[in-house]
Amino acid sequence: MKILVVEDEKGTAQVLRRGLQEDNHAVSLAHDGPSALSLAQDTQFDLVLLDVMLPGINGIQVARRFRELRQDITILMLTARDYVPDIVKGLDSGADDYVTKPFSFAVLLARIRAPERRVAEPRTHTLRSGAGDHRAARLPWDSRNPSHPGGTSLA
């Protein structure tokens, strides 16, 4: 996964980079809001770890700009601001999740994996008709082999 870490505290940014790289992520760093927005124009990131208190443009404004540019990017705020109105403001600005410092790195990694899991899980839909509701699951499909993954033909 390509992750952009936006953190003005350089020591914290390096620790995050090292830990994320050890977890097999490609990591880029930005230490202020304008640099983060500039990097995002040149690189297609999957996830942004975003501090709120940044020089130049704060994290709330950066999150809003990211949402204007790309709806599909995952934004995870990582900040010392733990006051409930700050958390609500962060989430309402476009963040998908909000983690307060200090944090557990294991929990952070789990929160990073969560959006990937939601995309990878098969989805179930309800079809409505006059005869009632019917549940349908999206099955994995290999177009080169028109059989069910278990080997049973669907034809």
What are the defining features of this structure?
155 residues; Rossmann fold; 5-stranded parallel sheet
Descriptive overview:
With 155 residues, the chain is of the alpha/beta class. It has a single domain, classed as Response regulator (Rossmann fold). It has 5 helices and 7 strands. Strands 2-1-3-4-5 form a 5-stranded parallel sheet, with helices on both faces. A two-stranded antiparallel ribbon has the order 6-7. Helix 2 packs parallel to helix 3. The longest helix has 16 residues. The relative contact order is 0.12.
- Main sheet: strands, sense, barrel: 5 strands, parallel
Structural class: alpha/beta
Low-confidence runs of at least 5 consecutive residues: 137-155
Q: What is the residue-mean pLDDT, rounded to a whole number? A: 83
List the helices and strands and how they pair.
Blueprint lengths: L1 E5 L3 H13 L3 E5 L2 H10 L4 E4 L8 H11 L4 E6 L4 H9 L4 E4 L4 H16 L3 E6 L2 E6 L18
Q: Can I get a quick summary?
A:
This protein has 155 residues and is of the alpha/beta class.
